[in-house]
């Protein structure tokens, strides 16, 4: 949740859960009697532990996008603590149907297409090295200690840096030159070109392939170093002066707009091309493999078809048939995943009707679209480990905002309806991507998909209450998360601004999309589809990595002008590339553990900072503004 509020992203806990779970459960498996959990603890058991950890953090993005936007628009109570019951029941709606309808997709994405799922591969290699080999015990100790060291360093760094953010966290290098008299260089700061010492995103860079990192950074450069300044020069977008004392510093990310069509901010302008790029890139990839998708569902439904038509021989196309290496008793049967989808769908329809007065038919349609958008999340996770789930939620908002407006709902009810249905799509898409990543690990280790499903269900139950509780903690420490204003907040919450803008736009009389933004979105969307067709039709597979990753580019369009994360991810990827070349064994031993420790450590360090903020002893109260632009605290 911390990372989602800071960056608009969320990270699965698979790597951290696999190593720390081993460190805790392996000794207990030896020390405890079998009646209390003792016994054999091997790679397959480790996968189950990891899956529970991943699922426990799967609902955090709801509270880094849709819910803060709803509070900013005044659609819910005065504060989250007053709405705890409704928060819990809605989170329950989002907790399970994404998990269940992911199961038919395993054969397509993992067994047939063999997508990389970089985080899943990293977790599989990590788990295998903890358990397998004559030196496995010694290697496990080294990995565990390096994870713990990195984890503690990341927590400490995140907490300590809060007291001197301009020195220890963000390097506002253009401000240094500005103070020396180079007034023109303020534009570098205004467009978000700051280097941040973030363990989380440097850790992400250690995991993702160079194609993804380069596309992410390249998309940021295209949007916020070329197209963005061009929009300002041509008058297609406008910025606002941050302080009259420093007129060279301009805010290009304002989402509170009087005239979003004729005078949008660059950030608002880029929402639409970014969303279109993400949608077209993902759907084009799915369209290129539609036969395999149908075959995957056909195999999952085969037992039901055989029961309905027991004497009817099915014609099997060997080119489309997907081989599943899991034993039959470890696969997830139709009654389990199908019954889970049906039960969770009915439960969601009842809760949303009783708690939020949403028509059950609308809820059912929202879940259908959530499944479609989950395919996009799966594509992104499988190819780049970047999951643009908030964008999928925004598109769901557009669809259901139009439905609500067509049915004559007033703007406020429309905004609440499209926000909640968008969160259903967001949660399902993220759960689907997370679970498929874990299923990749399961596939490589040879573990049981059914056992993983049970672990995911248990972790999701924890997540329902944990996510709601943490949201109350963060908003108590930082009320600006839920407050609509143009002032600076410790949590930029980039997803919240986009969510709020879309919610207001689709409930207005006409869709407030700038003409130039809409045209650019259409042109880019067509280009992405054509390029994907060319890649699969004429380019040999070995050259596919030379094509830009449009999912990463689309994320960069929407995230900016905050370019610290693309730069940090590219830096981490360059380090990983050099490290792998110089010492492959060293990277295999320590690389993934360092990445996991950095990601988890920064996130939990943010929780510590929230507690310090509530206690009135955080960097905002006791810190220094040295190194910060405009001489204002920048933590």
Question: How many β strands by DSSP?
Answer: 4
Specify the number of helices. 26
Rg (CA only)? 24 Å
SSE succession:
HHHHHHHHHEHHEHHEEHHHHHHHHHHHHH
The computed structural class is: mainly alpha
Q: State the separation between the terminal residues, measured CA to CA.
A: 17 Å
Shape: globular
Total number of domains? 1
Overview of this structure, please?
Belongs to the oligopeptide OPT transporter family. It is a single chain. The protein has one domain (1-615). Strand 3 and strand 4 (246-251) form a beta hairpin. The longest helix is centred in the C-terminal third of the chain and has 35 residues, at 411-445. It has 635 residues and is mainly alpha-helical. The chain is globular and about 70 Å long. It has a two-stranded antiparallel ribbon with strand order 1-2. Helix 3 (43-56) packs parallel to helix 20 (449-477). It is built from 26 helices and four strands. The protein has helices at 2-7, 14-31, 43-56, 66-72, 84-100, 106-112, 118-131, 136-161, 165-168, 173-179, 186-190, 199-207, 210-234, 266-288, 290-308, 334-356, 360-384, 389-406, 411-445, 449-477, 494-507, 515-537, 550-559, 564-582, 584-614, 619-622; strands at residues 170-171, 195-196, 240-243, 246-251.
């Amino acid at each position: 949740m911390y990372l989602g509020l800071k960056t608009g992203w969320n990270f699965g806990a698979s790597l951290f859960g696999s190593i720390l779970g081993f460190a805790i459960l392996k000794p207990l498996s030896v020390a405890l009697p079998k009646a209390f959990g003792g016994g054999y603890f091997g790679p397959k058991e480790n996968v189950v532990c990891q899956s529970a950890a991943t699922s426990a953090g799967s609902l955090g993005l709801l509270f880094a996008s849709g819910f803060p936007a709803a509070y900013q628009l005044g659609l819910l109570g005065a504060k989250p603590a007053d709405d705890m019951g409704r928060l819990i029941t809605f989170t329950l709606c989002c907790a399970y149907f994404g998990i269940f309808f992911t199961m038919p997709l395993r054969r397509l994405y993992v067994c047939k297409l063999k997508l990389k799922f970089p985080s899943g591969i990293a977790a599989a290699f990590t788990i295998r090295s903890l358990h397998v080999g004559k030196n496995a015990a010694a290697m496990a100790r080294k990995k565990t200690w390096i994870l713990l060291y990195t984890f503690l360093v990341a927590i400490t760094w995140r907490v300590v840096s809060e007291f001197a953010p301009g020195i220890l966290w963000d390097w506002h290098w253009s401000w240094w030159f500005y103070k020396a008299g180079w007034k023109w260089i303020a534009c570098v700061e205004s467009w978000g070109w700051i280097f941040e010492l973030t363990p989380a995103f440097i850790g992400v860079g250690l995991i993702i392939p160079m194609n993804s990192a380069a596309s992410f950074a390249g998309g940021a450069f295209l949007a916020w170093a070329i197209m963005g300044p061009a929009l300002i020069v041509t008058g297609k977008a406008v910025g606002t002066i941050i302080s009259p004392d420093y007129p060279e510093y301009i805010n290009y990310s304002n989402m509170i707009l009087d005239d979003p069509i004729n005078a949008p901010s660059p950030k608002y302008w880029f929402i639409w091309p970014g969303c279109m790029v993400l949608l077209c890139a993902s759907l084009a990839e799915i369209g290129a493999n539609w036969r395999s998708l149908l075959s995957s569902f056909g195999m999952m439904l085969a037992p039901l078809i055989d029961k309905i038509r027991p004497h009817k021989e099915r014609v099997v196309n060997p080119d489309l048939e997907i081989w599943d290496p899991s034993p039959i008793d470890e696969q997830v049967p139709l009654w389990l995943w199908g019954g889970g989808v049906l039960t969770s769908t009915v439960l969601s329809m009842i809760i949303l009707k009783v708690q939020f007065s949403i028509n059950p038919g609308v809820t059912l349609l929202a879940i259908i679209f959530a499944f479609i958008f989950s395919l996009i999340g799966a594509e992104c996770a499988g190819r780049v480990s970047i999951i643009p789930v908030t964008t999928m939620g925004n598109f769901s908002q557009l669809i259901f905002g139009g439905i609500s407006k067509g049915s004559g709902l007033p703007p406020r009810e429309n905004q609440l309806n499209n926000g909640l249905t968008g969160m259903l799509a967001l949660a399902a898409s993220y759960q689907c991507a997370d679970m498929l990543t874990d299923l990749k690990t399961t596939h490589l280790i040879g573990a049981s998909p059914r056992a993983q499903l049970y672990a995911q269900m248990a972790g999701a139950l924890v997540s329902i209450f944990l996510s709601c509780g943490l949201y109350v903690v963060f908003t108590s420490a930082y009320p600006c998360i839920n407050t609509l204003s143009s002032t600076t907040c410790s949590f930029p919450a980039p997803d919240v601004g986009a969510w709020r803008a879309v919610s207001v736009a689709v409930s207005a009389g006409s869709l407030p999309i700038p003409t130039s933004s809409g045209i650019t979105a259409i042109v880019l969307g067509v280009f992405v589809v054509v390029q994907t067709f060319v890649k699969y039709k004429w380019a040999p597979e070995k050259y596919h990595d030379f094509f830009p990753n449009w999912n990463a580019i689309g994320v960069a369009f929407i995230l900016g002008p905050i370019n610290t994360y693309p730069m940090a991810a590219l830096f981490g990827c360059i380090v990983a590339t050099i490290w792998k070349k110089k010492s492959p064994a060293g990277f295999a031993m320590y690389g993934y553990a360092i990445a996991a420790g950095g990601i988890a450590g920064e996130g939990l360090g943010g929780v510590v900072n929230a507690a310090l903020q509530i206690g009135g002893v955080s960097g905002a109260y006791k810190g220094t503004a040295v190194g910060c632009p405009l001489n204002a605290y920048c933590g």
